[in-house]
Design a protein that fits this description.
The chain is mostly helical. It has one domain: bsu32300-like (Four Helix Bundle (Hemerythrin (Met), subunit A), Up-down Bundle), CATH 1.20.120.580. The protein has seven helices and no strands. It is elongated, with a radius of gyration of 15 Å.
């Protein structure tokens, strides 16, 4: 059974990270890229947001007795194949899982302009996941 407290806490965290990330949308790109105190913080919030998404996905996979995915990106494919997630959302979230790997493992080579573009135009993917996850609260 889904642990409501676990799921709710992570959904709340995701909502908070998204709110903080939206504040960076008002910052001009040149300033965002030039100021480490801005892009480093934004990248950390992006990392934490994706970790919350992954935690929720893995929690629901375990709850439904699905096979453990081999990668974080594969978690969304598992949810889709089991009929729990729409394929389009899953595909977008797989991209986020790969972006998380860049933030965590390739941090010395992060393209801050790419991070800025993600914040400007791709946060809706995480909002869609937030709505999806909220609908699964018991």
């Amino acid at each position: 059974m889904v642990d409501r407290a676990t799921l709710s806490r992570r959904l709340d965290a995701l909502a908070g990270y998204l709110e903080r990330l939206r504040a960076f949308q008002a910052v001009p790109e040149a300033e965002f890229v030039a100021r480490p105190e801005l892009h480093d913080l934004a990248e950390r919030y992006l990392h934490l947001a994706v970790e919350a998404v992954l935690d929720i996905a893995h929690h629901l996979i375990a709850d439904r007795g699905l096979e453990t995915p081999e990668t974080n990106a594969a978690a969304f494919e598992k949810l889709t194949r089991a009929g729990h997630m729409e394929a389009g959302l899953a595909a977008r979230l797989q991209g986020w899982a790969r972006f998380r790997n860049v933030l965590v493992h390739l941090y010395l080579d992060i393209d801050h302009k790419r991070t800025y573009a993600v914040i400007q135009s791709e946060l809706n993917d995480l909002n869609d996941f937030l709505a999806w996850g909220t609908a699964r609260l018991p």
